[in-house]
Amino acid sequence: MTLSEIIVTEQLERRPRGVARMATRAEPRAVPQDGASLRDILRARCEEALLRCSAQSAGISIFDNDDLDELTWAATVGVLGPFEGRRFPRSDSPCGLCFSYRKTQLLLKPHRYFAWMAQTGVPVNEALVAPLIGQFGAFFGTIWVMSHDDLDIHFNLDDADTLADLSRGLATTIRLNDSGRAAGAGKS
Questions:
Q1: Is residue 130 part of a domain?
Q2: Looking at 34-86, which runs of residues are DSSP E strands?
Q3: What is the per-residue pLDDT across 16-50, written as a single tens digit (0 to 9) for each?
Q4: Tens digit of pLDDT for each residue in 83-119?
Q5: pLDDT computed for residue 180 by the predictor
Q6: Which of 140, 146, 160 lies closest to 74 in space, CA to CA?
Q7: Could you list the residue range(s) of the whole structural domain that residue 140 is in?
Q8: What is Dmax (Cα atoms) for the chain?
Q9: Is residue 25 a part of any domain in this protein?
């Protein structure tokens, strides 16, 4: 299995847009209340991605500032929900590919290429991964959706647009949370 066999991003252009899913874009976004934790904010976005993309799993991966080759599934819902909080290699992951290309990527059966994904025991039919890019092009992580055993789920440009919409502001939220944590750590 080669990397070029699993990256199928060009298929997004050829797939028909879905009328039913386009209507959900106009629905109001559920916003966590003031004082909500970063995890609550990220999980709300994941739940929305799961619903709006008709996916079976959704998540947000954040790159670790201390170990540049690690990322953490900071929020994960759906089939892969039990893996929330786990750390994975950035250089050997769909999120790492998104980082390298600096744009949304569509992957077909990525568990056949990435050994750690196969070790989870959860097959992935398709994965759509979008970058979380902050101010001045800083890359904070990714937001993603996946399909598993429902072979009728095929992500399209509507889904890519949804992830781009959901990613807006997330990098800033993550950065501000990190800044607040660092400031709090400096107090005695």
A1: yes
A2: 57-63, 70-78
A3: 987 544 444 434 344 455 677 888 999 999 999 99
A4: 999 998 888 899 989 988 989 999 999 999 998 898 8
A5: 45
A6: 140
A7: 3-13+37-182
A8: 57
A9: no
Is the CB of residue 76 less than 8 Å from the CB of residue 47? no
Would you say 80 and 101 are in contact if contact means Cβ atoms under 8 Å apart? no
Please give the C-alpha separations between residue 34 and each of 19, 23, 31, 160, 183, in angstroms, as whole numbers.
34, 28, 9, 29, 20
Considering the entire predicted model, what is its pTM? 0.85
DSSP class of residue 102 equals T
Edge-first strand order for the sheet with 70-78 is 87-89, 70-78, 57-63, 139-147, 126-133, 105-108
State pLDDT tens for residues 146-161: 999 998 999 999 999 9
Q: How confident is the model at residue 1 (pLDDT cuts 50, 70, 90)?
A: confident
Q: Is 59 in contact with 51 (CB distance < 8 Å)?
A: no
**Measured between alpha carbons, how far is 58 from 148 in angstroms, rounded to an integer?**
11
CATH number of domain containing 162:
3.30.450.40
More confident of the two residues 35 and 12 = 12
Handedness of CA 83, 57, 43, 137 (dihedral sign): positive
- Burial per residue of 12-32, b for 16 or more beta-carbon CB atoms within 10 angstroms, e otherwise: beeeeebeebeeeeeeeeeee
Looking at 73-141, list the stretches that DSSP marks H as alpha helix, in order from N- to C-terminal side: 94-101, 115-119
Q: Six-digit token pair at 180?
A: 């607040």
